[in-house]
Design a protein that fits this description.
This protein has 470 residues and is α+β, with helices and mostly antiparallel strands. The chain is built from 15 helices and 19 strands. The strands form 4 sheets. It has a 6-stranded mixed β-sheet with strand order 1-3-2-4-5-6, sandwiched between helices. A 5-stranded antiparallel β-sheet has the order 7-16-15-12-13. A 5-stranded antiparallel β-sheet has the order 8-9-10-11-14, covered by helices on one side.
């Protein structure tokens, strides 16, 4: 009569091996050798017995004899794999050298290792030891993935808090690894205009995402304080040049859309072309190529952050993307490419937006093939919904005027809640840099003005006028 036999009492901490074989000789040999290694064995001579044991006990290894005749070995292995699930319980098959067809089927079923009969005690011991090492590595990898998932949630939340979310912006993001090396940010300037940043760090995964948070902090804080995009870019470059290793950099697009939706200022450093699509005709009216080096490679140089200005009208769309989009492959090894993307931009269908056309075309092209790099696509419409100005009177109160002797003066008048919400010093410094150029030394002037403004606020003056004359 067939029965499940034990060679040692089963306790909670016992390391057990399930031996599935109908050969008493093999069973006895394995039991004797595993016992020397402190592993108890449980023997099932039929598949029914094996699954009855498997469902009621906790085991560490499974050894399957291919000579078992009641079901094909490959079917048994598949069923065991389905029962094992996410656990790491290695399956070792015991085979004869002439079992080529059986071995071929077992490979596709998913066994972990093989021992050819007859095998020595050293061979069995070595297989068990190597599978233990693999188990340790798998557990380390699983722990690492869990830690990365937690870290990604924290990073995503932190960056999300530093970005304004708009329903009007079409946005697609797919990462090759848990972390993405692509970064998309939006921030409101005090004059009501909108700053946008799309960045692509070298590589992908955790190392590529390391610079995301300091960049997001710098971009958001400096935009909120009223700094101009060129000065923001200079500060981000300085931070990344110090932070990143020499092998890493950040390709980047920065765009400022004016609050009246009449023009956009654009900087492209090492990113793919930017397309501006006319709302009425659907045709591409501007293609902005990269004309600057990515950030973090070199120290700041003169005119490195000069933005170009293009005219736009309400409804026009800016199409931004990282190179992961056009370099994605299909199952035949072909790239999505620039031509397919531009064909989607010419889509004049009233049934779907250009963003929907791009995403549908991209999904159909790639199918189930995973991207080789992080993919980000953003379609930004120049619409009034993006330009909700919280302090509409601020831009009216900031002026630059020329005196009769061709000198200049800049002034801003603040009162009420504006005194608390807006720091005028960055605005003043920004205007000075516009007039005298990015090379102007303003650090000392900024410190003096900040102290003066702080003192004025602390003395509770009802209205503050800040003026600098050259």
């Amino acid at each position: 009569m067939n029965a499940i036999s034990y060679n040692a009492p089963v306790t909670k901490n016992t390391v057990q091996a399930l031996v599935i074989s109908s050969s008493n000789e093999i069973i006895s040999y394995i039991e004797k050798n595993l016992e020397r290694s402190g592993i108890s064995t449980v023997v099932a001579k039929t598949v029914k017995q094996a699954f009855n044991f498997f469902s009621k006990n906790q085991i560490s290894y499974v050894l399957v004899d291919t000579a078992l005749t009641d079901v094909p070995c490959c079917e048994l292995i598949r069923s065991l794999r389905a029962n094992i699930g996410e656990q790491y319980i290695p399956i070792i098959i015991l085979a004869s050298t002439d079992d080529e067809e059986k071995l071929s089927n077992c490979i596709s079923a998913g066994y972990d290792d093989i021992l050819f009969k007859p095998f020595t005690s050293l061979a069995l011991k070595t297989r068990i030891a190597s599978l233990d090492k693999i188990g340790e590595l798998k557990q380390l990898y699983k722990d690492s993935l869990n830690e990365q998932v937690v870290a990604k949630r924290i990073l995503t939340s932190a960056i999300g808090e530093r970005r304004i979310h708009f329903e009007e912006i079409g946005f697609l993001s797919r990462s090759k690894a848990i972390f993405s090396g692509d970064l998309f940010l939006t921030a409101r300037h005090p004059d009501g205009s909108l700053n946008i940043l799309l960045a692509d760090f070298t590589g992908h995964g955790l190392s590529a995402a390391m610079g995301a948070l300091p960049v997001a902090d710098t971009f958001r804080t400096m935009t909120k304080k009223g700094f101009e995009p060129d000065y923001i870019l200079e500060n981000i470059n300085s931070k990344l040049h110090t932070l990143l290793p020499t092998s890493m950099f950040m390709a980047c697009i920065v765009i400022n859309i004016s609050n009246d939706l009449k023009h956009a200022r654009i900087w492209n450093g090492g990113m793919p072309d930017i397309y501006i699509r006319e709302h009425e005709t659907g045709s591409v009216i501007y293609t902005i190529e990269s004309s600057h080096v990515p950030l973090g490679i070199t120290e700041t140089t003169s005119n490195q952050y000069r933005l170009i200005t293009v005219d736009v009208t309400p409804g026009d769309q800016l199409i931004l993307f990282t190179d992961g989009l056009t370099e994605s492959l299909n199952e035949d090894g072909d790239m999505f490419g620039q031509q397919r993307l531009e064909a989607c931009l010419q889509n004049n269908s009233k049934e779907k937006t250009v963003f929907e056309a791009l995403v549908n075309s991209f999904n159909e092209f790639c199918g189930d093939i995973e991207p080789l790099d992080d993919v980000t696509l953003a379609c930004i419409p120049c619409v009034s919904e993006l330009m909700q100005i919280n302090n509409a009177d601020v831009s009216k109160n900031m002026q630059i005027a020329c005196s009769r002797d061709n000198s200049w003066h800049w002034y801003i008048e603040l009162g009420g809640l504006n005194l608390r919400e807006i720091n005028p010093v960055p605005n003043a410094i920004s205007e000075i840099r516009k007039i005298f150029g990015a090379s102007a030394s303003t650090d000392e002037l900024s410190s003096i003005m900040s102290v003066l403004y702080k003192n004025a606020i602390e003395h509770e003056k009802p209205e503050v006028g800040l003026q600098d004359t050259n």
